[in-house]
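Reading a protein record of the kind used here takes only a little practice. Think of the row as the fold of the chain written in a discrete alphabet. A record is reproduced here so that you can trace the correspondence yourselves:
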Amino acid sequence: MKTVISQTIIPLLVLFVALFSGSHVGAEVHLQSGFFPPVEEATLFAFDDRAIPLTENLRLEMNPPRKHPDNPVVPLGKDGEPDHWSVQFYGSVIRHEGKFKMWYVAADKKALADFKPGGPFKNWRPAYAESKDGIHWTKPNLGFVEYNGNSDNNLLLIQPEQAQGLHLIVIHEPDEADPGKRFKMILTMRSYLHGKKISTSMPLFSPDGFRWKVPESIVIENYAVKEESLALPPEHFEQGGLFKWNGMYHLPGQQLYPWASRPDGETAGRVMTVLRSWDFLDWSAAKSLGFYRARAAEPTIINGEGEEAHLAASVWNRGNVLIGLYGLWHGGKSNPERTIDLGFMVSNDGLHFREPVRDFVFIPRGQDGTWDEGGLLQGQGFENVGDKTFIYYGHWDPRLLKYKPRGGVGLATLPRDRFGALAVKHPDKPAGFLTSVISTSGAPEIWINASGLSRLTRLKIELFDVVEQPIAGWSGDHAAIVDRAGLRIPVTWPKTVTSFTADSFHIKVSIEGKERHKARVFALYVR
């Protein structure tokens, strides 16, 4: 059974257009805002104002996660290892075959010595780590690549070997018809457009996540992609995340003027755009302006000097909604003045992202003297593990004028799915919310993620039709009552309820009781 959520209050906006010819009278145009795909189970987060668009006497409280005390859970390597200078986590974490698997970029002193501004990322190599619990990680000897005279290292086999870059994202598609393409990677590399440096991204495929090949159509020379074989449009583009949404691959990336700008055409520092592809090989030149952080009312800013979005969102695809992290770039005229925290985003169509709370610092950079001081990187690593949500992030201190060892992978956790909560503003007034329209093929199963409930604080759950009228037998005296807190509390309807006949409905949640101010609603799950 699939669950479908409409982003509009009525699932489809129907326009009856009467034209001059009688044969056209009664023609219908159906418009639907947003692109919610059908899912086995939909998650309606408190911070998602498309899934929960109507509220009464409520406020949104965002909850930053806690950094794990053993951070960094993946540290720099030892001297002589391929990642002894940097563990660059513009990477991915995926749970597969009973393990947590991580892909990241490893760099050593030679990578620094060979790097020149605008030059290729030579010796910045894709690497791998794994874990049984997501906390304790190992870097297994894969035996694929010779480094320092032996192959006892965790470097991935990349063909050709010159495919090396700074950012990578990996996704796994077990249903891919071609076994050799069930793992897919997008890797940022250097290219040159009419002799001028640009960053671009290119696809790679793998049967197992360890052995990777660049498509034959892409030509790499001197650690750079040849201009005539680009998979992406011939523009400067620095990727942030990768996900599949409604059958299409989406690639959020950072662009600068003149490749991207504000809607009015003016510069806005770093701008997040989203490219799309049907086949993962050819990416459309048409793109969306996914997000820009610089204020429209402020004067045009110089890249790096203002409040910007540092690279694009890394994304957690939750089926009916997308959660993203991005860099809250705090600019300055020179590097010592620049720092990066991590911000929080949400999207319901894969093309446009927004902040539930503007400039909310989801994960702050570390204090000076700690391993993650100065600046953070957003990797695409999100997992629900038991009663917790795991979020992985990286480190890069932009204040340093001279390169020195830095990086690693940190872990931040929060109670499962408790990114933000709806809470009562005024305890002496009615409070509650109404969801967007939901369609199921039968009576819905609903769970609540909430805290602060008791015999003095309860949630009243009712079902309303598409014009926001109570559905008989599923509202009023037949409403479900939840007075127990938990991460996933089932909503149990009275035994006297009638059979469910509606194919589309709203969920109405009322927060009641003498201590209603203690209630926090984090999410609803609908199946």
